[in-house]
Amino acid sequence: MRWRWGLVWVLGAGLVAGLGLLWWLKGVSDAGNAASVLGSVGVIALLAAWARRNGRAHSGADQVDEAAKDLARLVLRQWEEEATLRQLFDPAPLPVAWSDSLLPGVGDHRELVGDPVDCRADEPQNLARAFRALPRRRLVVIGAAGSGKSTFAVLLTLGLLRSREEGDPVPVLLSLASFDPAREGPGAWLRRRMTADCSALADTEAYGPTAVRDLLADGRILPVLDGLDELPAAGQAAVLTALNHGYATDAPLVLTCRTANYVSAVAQASVLAGSAVIEPAPVRHDDAVALLRLAAPPGRGHRWTILADHLRDHPEGPVAQALTSPLMVVLARSVYADAAGADPAELADPARFPTSAAVEHHLLDRLVPALYGRAHAADPGSRRWDPDRAQRYLTHLARYLTAQGTHDLAWWQLYRSVPVLTRTWSRALLWSLAAAIASAVPLLWTTAEKFSEGLTDNAPFPGADYVSTFAAMAFCMVCVAAALPRRGIPTACVTAACGALAGAVVLQIWYMAAGDLRLADVPSDLLDGVFDGTFVFLVVLLTTGPPVPPSSPSRASFTTRRWRRRLLHAAARTCGIALLVGAAFNVYWLFDDERPALTAVWSASLPIGLVVGIGLAALQWTRNSVTVNDVTTPPSSIRGDRRITLLHGAYAALLLSVLAAAVTLFLNRPVPPDFLTVMETAVQPYCISVGLLGVTLALASAAWPHYLAARLVLAARTRLPWRLQSFLADAHRLGVLRQVGPVHQFRHARIQHHLTESPALPAQRRPTEPSDTAPAATGPVEP
Question: Is the C or the N end of the chain the one with fewer CB within 10 Å?
Fold first, then answer.
């Protein structure tokens, strides 16, 4: 943050020196202009104070303690709800025994990892005690596909949270699917993911600006990293190396991975320093049958008798081998839970199921039809997806995720499944078309008037020059922003300048074609257009971000919590923006030979600054209103991003309309216009068109418009349902999907891979779609 301090002082010194030189050369004849100079210097001093405050700001000890308590409460609530949906405690967790791995070379030295670990998954409190007994509280959980590693991670997280004492690290379960050690270190990734999954920590007024960083640095966060095997093979060893060298080796940590993948990663890198390594024992047949009987409704447990007898008589048979996997046990429960459904005794047919792979394929193949068929039969009058359509939609999602090389269904990245939205040039064409249409709507007013008077200005229709200008601006800014790194102010400046240049060039071409501009006037007019356009659009780009799909959604809500403090901050921000706008216009008029009175300049510029400042203060209030009661889910994430997108659009429309009117009037009048004149000009067609261009830029920089466009395209092509979030929520309740923060995942990678490889079902033209509020039955699937 020291760069802010230095940058502000350099700019301040340059401005003061320039003003002093101007004063010495030309003289200042009246007190008003002297006051303008002093006011500008005062604004620089305020900026310096802001830079110094932001450079030294950090969270206090009490704020960090409060963040840890609220984070523990939020994570416990989140995973208790998720465990309920997964039915992990209904009737009880599968009693899988976990103990130290016997594989050579996968664990660290015994002196570092402590005594051997021995625990059971159906005893979460014992899991917590066994973990706390580890000297460094670092653990690696390995096992075959479907062995219950993710379930172990959830149960361990709940056990640690339920028995947590003050000062204990807070377990936070995170998916490793988005970690790329080639682009960011473990600390940066953990901070980014925690801020995204636990959005309450973004409340800087409650926890300060460095709460997440301080919690990680002090070892008060226990990252439970699930799914190392979900990363590309080349990146798995890199993750181990990054954790060993970029993360404190004495900080608590839990990691899950498939056995073969972890052995390979260790061979290429090294063991996870200071970590014990455990793996599960096969599920006992008696335990599996006992759980299946308890899961069946009373009086229907006898349906498992034939299968139980077969397992006892053929302990090495295909179905017996398949049911040693916790995933297959839970799949069998989901497929055969209803007495009206298929009979589980069919699994005992050796002719039909000669191998364990055949049993597994059968259970995976029957999962979606069984869950959706049972739910539809339970409530035939509801508007629910039938099994065939659900299978087709889920198959498309599985193939999309596999093609992207991920297991995270992030709604803000769904646009990548639509090529026209993925490619920069085609996306720029779409947004430039949107800008042209938006800017043409208000200009139709003047078009009608000019056509009625017989004036066409040698153009296809009046206003075509501005429409094409705004389209060129949007196209250029989208392309430039996509090619530049996301670096805040520099990127915004370059993007705004390029957009202004493209618009100025197109507008000059129109003027020259109409004979309204001489060739000798082009350089100066072009320079003025670029300067004015950069100034106008830079403010919007700094507020909304570059016009490209963001890497993460925005967070927004509204609450009256700590409203007095928020109101004070909003008032200070509004006054600061008003002073900055006023100082900018005062500095501009210093260079005019006919300088107007001080009161005339401030009376016009201060109200404009207040309008701009109030809008920005409202945006900041909404951004910082996320509370600990706001659990981050995909629907809540979409609502928050949609809310901030619409607010950005309204703010951009207001800002650009007012600034365009102010700049036009200030440059073309011998004296500064009053505020009412500026506002009257802001509702003219041209200024409204500029404001709608700002709306286009705001939409292009947000996640929700891209998601909406992708969802509509995919629904029109029958790849996904029109009510996508309703469908995903239903699949989550039924047990096909799981939810990790703002993303969905298939409840197990085997389900995703099986659907990816399954043949596509033909599209069915059925208009019926279920409602968002339709109830759904639940069915467990091993995560």
Answer: N
pLDDT per position as a tens digit, 576-613: 666 666 666 666 666 555 566 666 666 666 777 777 77
Beta strands in 198-259 (DSSP E): 221-226, 253-258
Rounded Cα distance between 604 and 16, Å, is: 24
CA atoms within 13 A on the CB side of 498: 20
What is the distance between the alpha carbons of residues 255 and 149, in angstroms, rounded to a whole number?
A: 10
d(CA 223, CA 242): 14
Statement: residue 668 has pLDDT above 80: no
Distance between CA atoms of residues 665 and 615, nearest Å:
22
The number of angstroms, rounded, from the C-alpha of 487 to the middle of its chain's C-alpha atoms is 18
Closest CA to 159 of 122, 128, 117, 132: 128
Contact status, residue 637 vs residue 411, Cβ threshold 8 Å: yes
Beta bridge partners of 602: none
Residue 298: Cβ within 10 Å count: 6
Q: What's the chain's Rg over C-alpha atoms?
A: 31
Which tokens go with 777?
């039955």
Backbone angles phi and psi of 170, in degrees to 5 = -90, 120
Q: Examine residue 91 and say whether the peptide bond preceding it is cis (omega within 30 degrees of 0).
A: yes
Residues 691-702: tens digit of each pLDDT: 888 888 889 988
**3-state SS assignment for residue 440:** helix
Q: How confident is the model at residue 416, as a pLDDT?
A: 92
The three-class DSSP label of residue 258 is strand
Strands of 737-740's sheet in order across: 409-410, 743-746, 737-740
Q: What DSSP line would sit under 568-631, residue for residue? A: HHHHHHHHHHHHHHHHHHHHHHHT-SS---HHHHHHHHHHHHHHHHHHHHHHHHHHT---TT--
C-alpha–C-alpha distance, residues 310 and 765, integer Å: 44
Distance CA(237)–CA(224), nearest Å, equals 18
